[in-house]
């Protein structure tokens, strides 16, 4: 059942190229250049009418929503909120009939997400579910559904569901941007073409897992760790940090790199491990500055950057190079080494990787 893998988590990490491929399938028009969602009830008029988007989700799905926000705002210029579902209901959110509420849930059964979705609808919003399970409660409750085609996810730590949720957010942002004419057609076509290459890039990373495995070995006895990044990298850092904590039980924090000096830098001392993501060209210089800040306090920095960004190599202690892609598209590929690090650290520590203590796969109580 684990298809020759030692754990479901590793199997599911390796299924990502196929899961992404399946999620892309049938979602471009005949020319292959435009994203289409054939079964969406939302008309073009509806899409043009949206004044605000609120994304609600929990855990890893929430982290996918954080990337979704940046994509949607950048490409469609619609203001986007992202809320942890258990917070959304109690904060008197501003929702109107021109709000689109997007619920993201692998299982489609998470009680908090379901309750938040119902609250959004009660307040008059149109609702869209991004879920991995056909016929799940959240899928049935929403006006529209976009399925991630990750296939069953058994490991408690979510991997392929997250990757396919990100992919759906890319497709949705490209789709809305075309209908609302907020991005030029040639640029959108470039994005769609590059997006189609992502599954293969993920495959390339998975073929060369030696370097991350080695790095994981060096982390196994740490008691604490930092993940830093800016922009899209910060959202990915949050997911990398959650994955590590969840299955390795090592405490870690994800920090917006520019925020370190406003507090957390005081925790960095000789030998502190910092994983620094730098895939956003417009932020390279800023990230270099932040890496210097932590290095000056004795941190050991493991950098993750695109193959093009070799200058980063001089500033970090170790560098992991991702295959090149557009900076906009890096989250789906940058998360892969982070998933593998979490996995191998957990294995090294002898933990029950697929069933971490105190956690359940589907959280159906609020
Ligand atoms: C972390 C993880 C959880 C889930 C969260 C939401 O690896 O799996 O944080 O993402 O419980 O679950 P779904 O997506 O089923 O609503």
Q: Can you walk through the features of this model?
A:
The active site is at 361 (for fru-6p isomerization activity). Residues 43-182, 215-356 form the SIS domain. The chain has 366 residues and is α/β, with parallel strands linked by helices. Helices cover 45% and strands 16% of the residues. It is built from 13 helices and ten strands. Strand 6 (224-229), helix 11 and strand 7 form a beta-alpha-beta unit. The longest helix has 23 residues, at 185-207. The relative contact order is 0.14. The site of fructose -6-phosphate (F6R) has 14 residues, from helix 4.
Radius of gyration: 20 Å
Content-based structural category: alpha/beta
Span between termini: 32 Å
Spatial sequence of strands, sheet with the most strands: 2-1-3-4-5
Shape: globular
- Calculate the mean pLDDT score and round it: 95
Q: How many strand units?
A: 10
Strand count, sense and barrel status of the largest sheet are: 5 strands, parallel
Per DSSP, the total helix count is 13
| Contiguous uncertain segments of 5+ residues | none
What attributes does this structure have?
single chain, 366 residues, alpha/beta, 5-stranded parallel sheet, 10 strands, globular, binds fructose -6-phosphate
Compact overview of the structure:
This protein is of the alpha/beta class and 366 residues long. It has helices at residues 8-14, 16-24, 44-49, 59-76, 85-88, 111-122, 137-141, 160-179, 185-207, 210-219, 232-248, 284-296, 330-348; strands spanning 52-57, 80-84, 99-105, 126-131, 144-147, 224-229, 251-256, 273-278, 300-306, 318-322.
């Amino acid at each position: 059942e684990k298809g020759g893998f030692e754990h479901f988590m590793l199997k599911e990490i390796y299924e990502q190229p196929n899961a992404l491929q399946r999620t892309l399938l049938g979602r471009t028009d005949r020319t292959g250049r435009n994203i289409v969602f054939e079964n969406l009830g939302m008309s073009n008029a509806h899409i043009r009418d949206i004044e605000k988007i609120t994304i609600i989700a929990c855990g890893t799905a929430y982290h996918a929503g954080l990337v979704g926000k940046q994509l949607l705002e950048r490409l469609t210029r619609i203001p986007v909120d992202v809320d942890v579902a258990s917070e959304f209901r109690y904060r008197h959110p501003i929702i109107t009939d021109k709000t689109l509420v997007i619920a993201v849930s692998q299982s489609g059964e998470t009680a908090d997400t379901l309750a938040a979705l119902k609250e959004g609808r009660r307040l008059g919003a149109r609702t869209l579910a991004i879920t991995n399970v056909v016929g799940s409660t959240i899928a049935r409750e929403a006006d529209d559904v976009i399925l991630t085609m990750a296939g069953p996810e058994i490991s408690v730590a979510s991997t392929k569901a997250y990757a396919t949720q990100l992919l759906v957010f890319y497709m949705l942002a490209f789709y809305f941007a075309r209908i609302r004419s907020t991005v030029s057609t040639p640029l959108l076509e470039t994005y769609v073409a590059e997006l189609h290459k992502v599954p293969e890039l993920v495959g390339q990373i998975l073929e060369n897992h030696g370097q991350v495995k080695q790095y994981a070995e060096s982390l196994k006895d740490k008691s604490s760790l930092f993940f830093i990044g800016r922009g899209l990298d910060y959202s990915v850092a949050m997911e990398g940090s959650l994955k590590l904590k969840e299955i390795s039980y090592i405490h870690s924090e994800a920090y917006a790199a520019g925020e370190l000096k406003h507090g957390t830098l005081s925790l960095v001392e000789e030998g502190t491990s910092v994983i620094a993501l730098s895939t956003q060209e417009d932020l390279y210089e800023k990230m270099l500055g932040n890496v210097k800040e932590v290095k000056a306090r004795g941190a050991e920095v493991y950098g993750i950057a695109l193959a093009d960004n070799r200058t980063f190599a001089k500033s970090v202690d170790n560098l992991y190079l991702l295959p090149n892609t557009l900076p906009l598209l890096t989250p789906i590929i940058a998360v892969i080494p982070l998933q593998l690090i979490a996995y191998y650290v957990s294995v090294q520590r002898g933990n029950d990787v697929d069933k971490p203590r105190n956690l359940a796969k589907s959280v159906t109580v609020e």
